[in-house]
User: What shape does this take?
Amino acid sequence: MEFRKKNTGSRKIKKVSLVFSVFYITTVFGFSFVTFCNSKKTSLKEQLIDHKISTLMDTTELNQNGENPLEGNAEAIAKGAVHYSTMCSVCHGTGAQGSTGPDLLDNAWLHGNDNYATYNIIMNGIRLENMKMNPPRGKMPPYKNILGSHKILEIMAWLADQKSKLKENPDN
Ligand code: HEC
Assistant: This one.
């Protein structure tokens, strides 16, 4: 008799602990899920703030002699390719060989054939009164606040790399 009693008692305990575990697991899982979703939300917000701060505090610049410090840097070139295709290819063509905006790989420059001119144009855009395409094809927007100087130098590193590849293969 005593044994039986004990047995039903432990069964009850088992049941209670099972119910408790299910409740516990559901609560913990639910809570973690909600926290996870919220953390995603804040991290997106944080990412935006980080992006703004990093573009505003960007200190990468052209070297004193006008050289791009990121030229030839494989990582910068790869990132530049991505920025170019999302921000510039609509107007300058996927391969930068011109569309609405001018060819960026030829030697015919409308606004100056050096890094200073190119950097300045991408940072500040081209004002309506300074546009040179004839007939006018639209505006070249400023990217100082959208990309910041580091990303712009990455794009310029990619453009320089594309240019050197064109030179290696004159059939293109
Ligand atoms: C909305 C279309 C548009 C977008 C987007 C755009 N551009 Fe332009 N870009 C132009 C036009 C149009 C001109 C030429 C304006 C003129 O002088 O008539 C130009 C001119 C330029 C020039 C000067 C070319 C020269 O011959 O001197 C450079 C360099 C340039 N763009 C780079 C970029 C880069 C890099 C991006 C992306 C970050 C970009 N552009 C995005 C339209 C655009």
Observations:
- The mean pLDDT is 86.
- The domain at 74-168 is CATH 1.10.760.10 (Cytochrome Bc1 Complex; Chain D, domain 2).
- The CA atoms of residues 66 and 115 lie 6 Å apart.
- The chain has five helices and no strands.
